[in-house]
Design brief:
GO terms for molecular function: DNA-binding transcription factor activity; transcription cis-regulatory region binding. By secondary structure, this protein is of the alpha/beta class. The protein contains twelve helices and twelve strands. It folds into three domains: about 10-65, 434 Repressor (Amino-terminal Domain), CATH 1.10.260; about 70-165 and about 295-325, Response regulator (Rossmann fold, 3-Layer(aba) Sandwich); about 170-295 and about 325-340, Response regulator (Rossmann fold, 3-Layer(aba) Sandwich), CATH 3.40.50. Helix content is about 45%, strand content about 15%. Helix 1 packs across helix 2 (about 25-30) and helix 8 packs parallel to helix 9. The longest helix has 17 residues, at about 195-215.
Length: about 350
């Protein structure tokens, strides 16, 4: 170690000087590079402790030629799933000393998508995450030459991008199994818009599982994710439904159903069971508390950030990652009256 006085705000070059190494060596130690000799690593760590050095993103970028910044393209940013995914990515990135720059996709036209990509690349992002829940948005993105690692939030694999997502199919299977085990044999599915990847995955898994259980198959109702749509559907029915349960593709529509059926004098779950998807923060306080599928958006953010950092550093990354879900059984689902 040197006998130079400790600078008020030590930087990576002060550490390099104190340890008698280059600033590139300090950077490799900070990033746990495997090629550093144990003795050299210890000298750098001793200098860091002696100088009370705290690395920042600028110092790391100087040596690694990376800006430690993740870009996020987000479509339908006001919807619960996309906004929660973005929040999960922001939290996970902060834990890795990365920043996040996000841009809402203004339109499905190629010009709008190109402008959003150009904005992010101008910010010096190291990798790009695409929260584009609609198939039309992702199709537009495939036409662009991005030149960065790209990860799309979708459960299916993709020929162009890495993918990471919650297992939507597993969630739908858990719902059907739960209702069938309670004794329901006639279940309606209130789906989300079918140009959304998640809505389509849930709908397909629902039908496949219904057939495996040999339950009654009936046409689905396609909604728009909103409680208003579901309320209007329930309140406008001309007669009491024959089905004994509804699987709503998200919690907001489940809430609208509960409200609409209550106004029709149809009690949940005494006369009709309702199950949602998402586990919104308030679902435990619905009347009745909602049985639903929980998505772990913090875990999703952690996996997305880890994959993008690895890809930006040139390390091998799984092409497709799916995360488990959990069925939260509450009081909106019960045995059908005839089976009670």
């Amino acid at each position: 170690m040197t006998d130079n006085p400790t600078p008020a705000r030590p930087n990576i070059r002060h550490v390099a000087s104190a340890a008698g190494v280059s600033h590139m060596t300090v950077s490799r130690v900070l990033n746990n590079h495997p090629s550093i000799r144990p003795g050299t690593r210890q000298r750098v760590l001793d200098a860091i402790e002696e100088l009370n050095f705290r690395p920042n993103s600028a110092a790391r970028a100087l040596a690694t030629q990376r800006n430690r910044r993740i870009g996020v393209l987000i479509d339908a940013s006001s919807a619960y799933g996309p906004s929660s995914t973005l929040r999960g990515i922001e939290l996970a990135a902060g834990e890795e000393d990365y920043s996040v720059t996000s841009v809402s996709v203004p339109s499905e036209e190629q010009g709008g998508m190109q402008s959003a990509v150009d904005h992010l690349t101008a910010q010096g992002v190291d990798a790009l995450c695409v929260i584009a829940p609609r198939s039309s948005s992702l199709a537009t993105l495939r036409q662009l030459d991005i030149g960065l690692p790209v990860l799309a939030i979708k459960a299916e694999g993709d020929p162009n991008f890495l993918t990471t997502a919650v297992d939507q199919q597993q969630g739908a299977i858990l719902v059907v199994d739960h209702l069938a085990e309670l004794g329901h044999r006639d279940i309606l599915h209130l789906a989300g818009p079918l140009d959304w990847f998640d809505a389509r995955a849930r709908e397909r898994a629902f039908h496949a599982r219904i057939r495996e259980w040999k339950l009654r198959e009936r046409p689905i109702v396609v909604g728009d994710w909103s409680a208003d749509f579901a309320y209007d559907y329930a309140a406008s029915l001309k007669r009491r439904p024959e089905y004994t349960a509804i699987f709503a593709a998200n919690d907001e529509m489940a809430l609208g159903l509960i409200h609409g059926f209550a106004e029709r004098g149809i009690a949940v779950p005494d006369e009709l069971s309702i199950v949602g998807f998402d586990d919104l923060p308030l679902t435990a306080h619905f009347l009745p508390p909602l049985t639903t599928v929980r998505q772990d958006f913090h875990l999703l953010g952690t996996k997305v950030v880890a994959a993008l950092i690895s890809a930006a550093e040139g390390r091998e990354v799984p092409r497709r990652t799916r995360l488990p879900v959990e069925l939260k059984v509450r009081q909106s689902s019960a045995r059908p009256r005839a089976a009670s």
